[in-house]
């Protein structure tokens, strides 16, 4: 992604070769601020407080968190502490555990003196692999958009929920990668961007990056999508996922399930973009088995925005004394998913579909 002509990833190694730099996504869309992570605790805070978010980027940040931990202590006990600290930050996104397991698999067999260099090498590789996977799934997904355009000859209207773009990954994005690839290939697209309450990742993050890239888009209230589908204003839905089961259920930002129901009722294709580390091969039933994160009620009762003077302020939107509950995710059953877009191609949301693309997991 380019910002004012400068290419950025969402996470990168600082010039000193030790620290790690990230974009503070809590400041977007109004401010572009970068933060330097210097320790394990910095990385854990960045994930827990959502300076970084999105399943692939959480995994990449956790990998670098393990590397940062080796600066202070690379012993077996220290690695376990780092693993446990990072693993406890966010319970739903499986990429977090995947990345931590990848790091431990590399580091544990090595002598302590070799672990620091190996940790930074593997973390960098995880970032490169994520970027490549998302670029590939973008190409596969763009073919779906191109085919709709070929049939209709019109602008393809795509609805997405939350942020599954460049800001949710190391680069390119998951659900938004096909849109970028199609747009860059000259296919006319327009994106309906759900605001995605309560943190407004659609309005603040997806809209921000589409704006940077020049992709036509319109921000809508979360409950507008069904109306648009009823009136033929949505050609397909593409969303991301924080965890996908081996049966094809997808766990994504709260509200995704309702979009899938509306899409099913109106015969609108509903696709999910995901790199393979987002697949949890140990879970079959998403509704019963995936832990759903509950976040602070304050995220729901308060909101950030820019006032007319240009100052970013936080205001309360609920009455004093009203309770709030803030589930971060919901699960969309595989029966509502038209297809899964991965770096290896597109498959049906089913055990057979996933095994056909990933036979080594069969």
TrEMBL record:
Biochemical pathway: Amino-acid biosynthesis; L-methionine biosynthesis via salvage pathway; L-methionine from S-methyl-5-thio-alpha-D-ribose 1-phosphate: step 1/6
Residues that coordinate or bind substrate: 53-55, 90, 201, 252-253
Annotated protein name in UniProt: Methylthioribose-1-phosphate isomerase
One annotated GO biological process: L-methionine salvage from methylthioadenosine
Site feature (Transition state stabilizer) residues: 162
Species this chain originates from: Paramagnetospirillum kuznetsovii
Catalytic residue positions: 242
Enzyme class: isomerase
Function: Catalyzes the interconversion of methylthioribose-1-phosphate (MTR-1-P) into methylthioribulose-1-phosphate (MTRu-1-P). Also catalyzes the interconversion of 5-deoxyribose 1-phosphate and 5-deoxyribulose 1-phosphate. Part of a bifunctional DHAP-shunt salvage pathway for SAM by-products.
